[in-house]
Amino acid sequence: MMLAVDPSKKISFNRCIGDGDLVIVYERHDNMKAVKVCENSVLQNRFGVFKHSDWIGKPFGSKVLSNKGGFVYLLAPTPELWTLVLSHRTQILYIADISFVIMYLEIVPGCLVLESGTGSGSLTTSLARAVAPTGHVYTFDFHEQRAVSAREDFERTGLSSLVTVGVRDIQGEGFPDDFCGKADSVFLDLPQPWLAIPSAGKMLKQDGILCSFSPCIEQVQRSCETLRANFTDVRTFEVLLRMYEVREGKMENSQAEESVPTGSHRCKRRQRSSEGGNGMEISSSPTVMARPSSESRGHTGYLTFARLIRLS
């Protein structure tokens, strides 16, 4: 389970891995997979064969060995890691956008959040943790098979008590009337969000906040035009994330003197001269270099936020 909820409603990973649990098998930062622990099963990869029975009883974060002496780490399936390993049924939101959304929607434990569409469930997973243990996320997708798959994923990750998945065309039908005036926040990820904005406004509590995610600026323009009728504080953001690789590299001394990369730091060490035996301080390897990662993602989409106008 992703969220271990005890009788006192506290969420914790302070427990050992058990038969039937979901774990994230970590080989390296760009090679992870979700695995359901089964006592009689094995995991086979380039590092050897790993018996699931050896995992049972170990705490999350443990390093486990294969029959060849290779190793992997067994990590708890947090929303951050789940976002990196889940099946992509649709384009998903990643960590930078997700964290921004949760902050600007002012989501805290106990909130009631409406979402459309569910897609691959990347954002839904983080929303569920944000509202836990007493809140709830109601998420809708017009595609029945996607909704079924998402529901199965939430069962696997232990979120079924916090998330309800519905099949509904929110653009055409709007949100169910049962939620009128009850939602703290509404999130829209739709091709024509302006069609769902009037319904979303009816669902929100006074001073509630709406967020719409759109990949194209033309969608944003039309959505903002619709929002200004009943919302205030309409703002649009584009979250750009730039990752850096910081590592040690070796350079020839002559190169190090002539050209040092931006953001690099030369390590100095005292070496004994082979001729005179006197200690002298010279620049030498290793050099710590930093450069932008080639895997950095650029534009993912635009996030438009608006607050429902408080009636006098």
Overview of this protein structure:
The structure is a single chain. This protein has helices at residues 79-85, 95-104, 122-131, 144-156, 170-173, 197-203, 217-227, 253-258; strands at 4-5, 11-12, 22-28, 31-36, 42-45, 48-51, 62-65, 71-75, 112-116, 136-141, 163-167, 183-188, 204-214, 231-237, 244-249, 265-272, 279-292, 302-308. The model is unreliable at 4-11 and 268-275 (pLDDT under 50). It is an alpha+beta fold and 312 residues long. The protein has 3 domains: 4-77, Vcp-like ATPase, Chain A, domain 2 (Roll), CATH 3.10.330.20; 81-240 and 298-308, Vaccinia Virus protein VP39 (Rossmann fold, 3-Layer(aba) Sandwich), CATH 3.40.50; 244-292, no CATH class. α1 runs antiparallel to α3 (122-131). Helices cover 22% and strands 35% of the residues. This is tRNA (Adenine(58)-N(1))-methyltransferase catalytic subunit TRMT61A.
